[in-house]
Amino acid sequence: MNKHPLAHALATVNHQRYFPQVISSLALALLSLPALAQPGAAGPVEELIVTGTPGGASVRRFDASFAISTVSDEEIQQVAPASTADLLKTIPGVWVESSGGVSGANIFVRGLPSGGDADFVTVAINGLALYPAPTLSFMENSTLFRVDETIARLEGLRGGPNPVYSNGQVGLTTNFILKEGGEETEGTVRYTTSDYELQRIDAVISGKLDQDLYYMIGGYVSSSPGVRDAGFNAEEGHQITINITKILDNGKANIFHRSTDDHGTWYLPVALDVDGIKTGLDASYTQVGQANRLVLVPISGADGEGGSETRWESFDMGEGRGWNGSVTGGAVELNLNNDWTFTDRFSLTKGAANTLGFVPQGAAVSLGSLNGGAAGETVSGAAVAADDLVQQFGPWVVMKDIKAFNNDLSLAKRWENYKLTLGYYTSSWEVDEWWSIGNQKWYRLGHNGEMISPASISDACQGPEVATCSWKYDVDALGDARENAFYIAGETYIGDVTLDAGVRVVNRKTHYAVDHTTDDDGPRDGITDFVASADEDKVSYTAAVNWNFRDDMGVFVRINDGHKYPDFDAYRDFRGDYNNGSDLVIDVSQFELGYKLARDNYSLYATAFSNNTKGQPFCDVGGASCDRLETKAVGVELDGKLFLGDFVLDLNATFQEPEIDNGELAGNQVLRQPTHQVRLTPSYQFAFNNGVEASVYGTLSLISDRYGDNANTNKLDSYTKFDFGVQVSVDNFNVQLAVDNATDELALTESDPRAVGTSANGRYILPRNVKFSVGYNF
Questions:
Q1: What is the DSSP code string of 675-723?
Q2: What CA–CA distance (Å, rounded) separates 530 from 81?
Q3: How far is CA 186 from the centre of its chain?
Q4: pLDDT of amino acid 531
Q5: Whole-prediction pTM value?
Q6: What integer best gives the mean pLDDT of the chain?
Q7: What domains are defined for the chain?
């Protein structure tokens, strides 16, 4: 019996180098999809989106001429994400390494090159970026956001008109839309626990304050030892959000405030083997524990330039990564006379995004191999056998205070067959940061493993008793940046065809002063290694043709060209290349061909894409300069739903070929990104006579091979992951059981990004974990 073309396309993913066959199979699948319809089944609800449109005007998703996905609050609840980044797996074209904990993920988009963090990702609330720069070292946008019951929906826009609007992001903009109050008072209270002792309470309430004045207030408190048990409450947080909305005679005004204090253990790569023998460490392991969490870290020291004294300070590695800050924002939307529309949106972000954790350095070895076969002891006097495993860990400390302000003002005029929007976007952002990283010392390998006594190993960096010590970076830096951008966007309608185009003219000024001489006078000693200044003028554009040739079917073609600018990054952006006069702006051009199908029983949004980048810096570990790479990627994204009575099937798939296009590595796969990922989520609804409703669902994820480096020497094997859950509702009560990684798949998301060549370390996906929640809606 012949396979259906869609089944054939999914089977093809097992052969990651046969991309042309995948494309042709998917094309056949699209043509045959009408045969899948079954009359009478429940269908999708019409979706309105506001991301990627001039002034944030709402349009039907089906009418959009770009690739955008939506995730409702009900779908967010079903996913039960472990972090904000974990939720982004629901967006096609996005690869997420969320195995690092509640903060500090690595997020990649459509094969665009990145060594980690989230170079091409913006996280926004109600249309404005939390921080205009997508990534600083040890801080990417998802760190600054926590998902809770106050979110109405998530919109994820890839490519498309992104380079023209808001902060000009060329990759992915994830826009979280807050809930607003209505005429009736309503709310939710939810308690969540887990097999890793999570204790969390969420609550939200909304309603009417006065005539045309509405409110929403909600948040959470949470505490747990973490999925990888630290032995103490390593994940703790709380958040509160207030959103006030006023309906005006000719529009709407809104203001919100969100305050967050949330952190969790920083999960890092672990030792995989010693001389080919497995260490026995698995996905439940984390080095930090109650016995080793308090560490003396050098805050200044000898640098060979006259200093000889090292000074130390105690830090808690258990704090991990997190965000302690606030976001305040608002908007005014007015409908003026003669079809004029005025919109102004603003936001202010300020707070601390700190990182503390044990970073592995090199392979694990036996203690005896370091000291002539002798045994030893820890700093507390515990015996360590000669064949016990030890490894170097650096207690890294990165303290970041950030601040950012955004304002996006637009004025639009609509005629019968035309619309024109003029806009002015301005933003300013700052960082005040201090690093002490490297600092490696020998530790007994294993959870709660203590530092090895200096008497057991001859090592100049083993403790504060030693007068001299060296470490990789002691950075003290200040940065500020400002962007002013003017944009103009227009669209015209010719029958069923819509043409739109936009141009953005940008001036970006960046200043960054860095001191990492580590002399013994301490931070802010007046000695500055370099002061970097960049003043860039660039033009970005986008243009598209959208043809809805039937009420339920359409296509679009879009091109765009945008830029990624250098940001405050002592490790990557502002290094040798900048001092040599190189332009650090990365140019990104993209082409998209989209197909849209939205019927009563199923929907499918398929987008083929091609992108080219020039100038992305990739730095050797410890090197003084960076290679400037050119890359290219082609691929296709699928976002679909099938409704067959009480059965629903969600499809989220990405097939791509991201390659380096220049230099000695030309033809190699771009590091850390799979050539394909497929997520299938079937669910089935049950209704019982006594008013009980239930649903059973699961998600099967198929992830292809990846490489941990651009040289393609560190291969990360493909894997399959399965999650499932059950939801039951009785009157206003509801319960949910969610099982993540049900088969306890042991798979790597990354090798050691600080290693050159084959890596002895790797980071596993999170182990199997179970959450249980009870909620009450009123």
A1: SEEEEEEEEEEEE-TTSEEEEEEEEEEEE--EESSTTS-SEE--EEEEE
A2: 42
A3: 31
A4: 78
A5: 0.91
A6: 88
A7: 1-36 (no CATH), 37-777 (2.40.170.20)
